């Protein structure tokens, strides 16, 4: 290997950065086209949200929706530690097809910019821009599938891992803004929250703790490190409350063997305490025993994955 192509940083298992500045990704780079999925009967297409930042999304709908019927909207933010993946990655594309079929929703899967080429907070800003686009004209966004099928009184934000982290920050920001979109609920799957001091499983698994530390300090090299407020919702003031999220319902999914599991549980406990204080927000925790991080995407045919998708769809359609 020539000196110009020496490795300057390895971010296992996602990518490496070379001394000449090039980024070599070895995960999350596969893609499948949008279109009709015969297995689920779901249609999808790619749309541009903002040409100035190349912000795009993949939008999904059931092939058949009764005339005049409006269905919930799910705005989805994928995971990948802020450095890999996209809505076109096969496991995300197939997962959204499945959700749309089972929950009967319109879904908008946002393709936010990735680090390190676009350092944080680019992913958060893109994600917010997508929400602003959705809110444009009080729900009169210029997208035929949304205009024809979307029930803007039932908008849900959903995401896994880094995407769940994103929707936490989006909900806080929306609640403090005048953005004209009503968020009915949040679905946070295996949320990517972290911290400097280990808790729970992290204490017994120093190798995985160090690996996740490396992910975060790579995408956000701030003075706060793993206690940066972007990644640790328990620093910088009072712990998060349900009321601050500005929605009616929150579902938090965790997996027993996931190194992030205890952070998700701590987040749930914080919201549940505040839920009891005001009674306006319902917060639920769904734990899958014996499974690891985003198992429902890596092993979508297992019984546990079926249970997760069923719980997710039931949460959306619960009145």
UniProtKB/TrEMBL annotation:
Q: Name one Pfam family in it.
A: Abhydrolase_3
Molecular function via GO:
hydrolase activity
Span of domain Alpha/beta hydrolase fold-3 = 74-296
PANTHER family per the UniProt record, alphabetical: ARYLACETAMIDE DEACETYLASE, CARBOXYLESTERASE 2-RELATED
Family per similarity comment: Belongs to the 'GDXG' lipolytic enzyme family.
Q: What is the recorded name of this protein?
A: Alpha/beta hydrolase fold-3 domain-containing protein
